């Protein structure tokens, strides 16, 4: 991820409603992008999710799931997140 893209993600919560239930979240359909955000400085307090129906393979989901920063979620968990039930 380029430096400008990481900076753009920093301003998304107030502009686009990415702050849910008092904390910042970001959802990714692409495992490499999720891994890059997880490694980028300034996102330590963000909760990162990789959706398992996105543009990713089983191996990519496993690799992302190995990260302590990324939670791989399915459609039901996404719905729960939107209802504030997934922390």
CA radius of gyration is: 12 Å
Task: Output the strand order for the largest sheet.
Answer: 1-2-3-4
Task: State the domain count.
Answer: 1
Q: Bin the strand percentage.
A: 15-25%
The profile of the biggest β sheet is: 4 strands, mixed
Order of secondary-structure elements: HEEHEHEH
Number of discrete helical segments: 4
Blueprint (SSEs and pairs):
Layout: H1 3-16, E1 19-20, E2 23-28, H2 31-39, E3 47-51, H3 58-65, E4 70-73, H4 75-82
Parallel strand pairs: 2-3, 3-4
Antiparallel strand pairs: 1-2
Helix pairs in contact: 2-3
Tell me what you see in this structure.
With 87 residues, this protein is of the alpha/beta class. The chain has one domain (3-82). 45% of the residues lie in helices and 20% in strands. The chain contains 4 helices and 4 strands; from the N terminus they run αββαβαβα. The protein has helices at residues 3-16, 31-39, 58-65, 75-82; strands at 19-20, 23-28, 47-51, 70-73. Strands 1-2-3-4 form a 4-stranded mixed beta sheet. Helix 2 links the parallel strand 2 (23-28) and strand 3. The longest helix is centred in the first third of the chain and has 14 residues, at 3-16. The protein is globular and about 30 Å long. The termini are far apart.
């Amino acid at each position: 991820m380029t430096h400008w893209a990481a900076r753009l993600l920093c301003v998304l919560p107030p502009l686009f409603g990415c702050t849910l239930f008092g904390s910042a979240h970001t959802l990714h359909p692409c495992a490499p992008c999720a891994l890059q955000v997880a490694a980028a400085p300034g996102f330590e307090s963000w909760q990162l999710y990789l959706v398992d129906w996105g543009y990713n393979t089983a191996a990519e989901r496993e690799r992302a799931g190995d990260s302590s920063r990324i939670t791989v979620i399915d459609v039901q968990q996404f719905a729960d997140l939107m209802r504030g039930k997934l922390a």
